[in-house]
Amino acid sequence: MDHRLGGREGILNPELRSRLSAIGLASPLGLLLLALLFVPLGIGLWYSFRQGSLYGISGGLSFDNYSEVLGRETFWKAIRTSVLFGLATAAISLVVGFIIARYVRFEKRTLAKVAVAVVLLAVFGGYLVRIYAWRTILGESGVINSALTTSGLLDEPLSWLLFSPTAVVLTLGSIYAPYATLIIMSGLESVRDDEVEAARDLGASPFRVYQRVVLPLIGRSILLAFTLIFLLAAADYVIPPLVGGPDTQMVGVLIANQFMATGDIPLGAAYGFVTLLLLVFFGTLIWAAMRVCGLLPKGAR
Amino acid sequence: MARVRSVSGKALLLLVLFYLALPVLVVVAFSFQEANRTGLPFEGPSLRWFDLVVSDDAFRNALFATLKVAAAASVTATAIAFLGALATARGHLPMPGVVRGAGLLPLIVPPVFIGFAMLIAIDEFNITPSLFTVYLAHTLVTLPLAWSVMLARFDGFDFSVEEAARDLGAGRLKVLSRVTLPMTWRSIAGATLISFAFSVDEFVVTNFVIGNENTLPVLIFSRLRRAVDPSINAIATLLLLTAILAGILAWLVMRGGKDEEPDFDADSNGAVDRPAGKESLVV
Predict the structure, then answer these.
(1) Quick one: which of A83, A97, B44, B59 has the most CB atoms within 10 Å?
(2) What is the pTM of this model?
(3) Nearest Cα to Cα of residue A244 among A163, A170, A161, A159
(4) What ipTM does this complex have?
(5) Substitution target from A15, A20, A36 for chain B, most B beta carbons within 10 A
């Protein structure tokens, strides 16, 4: 026992020792991120400057891929669509998230527990599964149309339900809104009852309470939810081809196609990095805009 | 007035809950449909598609692959998150803020970028895409979940207990096995189960790195592109069941008390019970 106690204080001074052991404990995390995230992104960046052809990838570095990407009309159209759909999805997610989170936080009823259960069901409840479900719901022989035609309300099925921008945004919203709900729930958690009561006692109407007390207090959560959902939704590559139509080409699809179909990997990498840069730029823009609009005052949580 | 507000608030709530739950309900309901289509009127119930699916070798292989990858990835991610969060919360780590954020990065970088970057790296190092590369990818993308659960746990951890054990002569390993692990096992189990549920469902990154293998989501995707195939409903229902079971288990295990510590401020503000750590999925 004694010698072990002594050994612990041994050669190195205790502070250096505990610092080294902390670094040792955290090193698997660092290695994982390095090997599986940073190195692959770095190699991808390097590839984006190389040339791809049918015969393989040649070594010479140039900006050719980037000028090709930036010169393509389809790319800019896809970016516009992605940003638009990303914003719409983020907005829908915030509204859905706030309605649920508000109820769960301030109304202590059974329905609140049901709401939490539904959100958790949606979070764990299958990405592809739910995309497929929307196809089933909106399709020409799907739930809505077969209900309308068999009940005699319509003679012909509505063909515009599926493969439309509405279908894409509806699906994106149902996939990403549960995450926004979790974020806003955690934000509302930190709003104390006495803060709300104080405002009410001072005569604020329920609307004023939200406007002046609750929303400013959870500004950070709202901002985080909006930006994160925007990024994830704008970069989605699975949903647009499955439920969208000719006008819903999103930028993630352009990237994925380079890797899955066309096979020009360096060009695909260039698509990817331009997109990443643009999305981060738009994300920062949103952040800045909301800060200017005063959605994130001092003391926000 | 107040009554009108509360009724309209409830109606709105039910509407958005319907929006979130509808797709799941539709898939589950139609997996019991007898007819060879997925529309109304509903015929059934029947287990026809489940019979077809469970005797299908492609399904069985994909299910087995999914479980294997999810088990390995969730355990690896949780172990890494456990060690890192322990070090971060103890407070001897340089730049703890950066480390905290870094653990969340794989969640913030949209998965399509992670996917294509990993595909390129795999190609560059001449690795064959396989379930092993899927395992690596899933370890990365489930890490932020395990990370936020473990960080939340260790942020509320009383490290003086560890010190007391060491002063009494316990070695590092003994402190870990007799003090730290018993005090945090609920969060560890919760983090593993949440990561597991996420891995079972992961498709966006998997699709890039899987090569010729199949996991359940990849199998569903390949059948989605064919004509009407109601067996997808049954596969999807079984996939849902797997993920949701893991989710419920995580909720139960993390709800069952904040590990072995007294919970002084339990429900003081009357908030609805939530699993420990859930509220900090985002730090």
Answers:
(1) A97
(2) 0.85
(3) A163
(4) 0.86
(5) A36
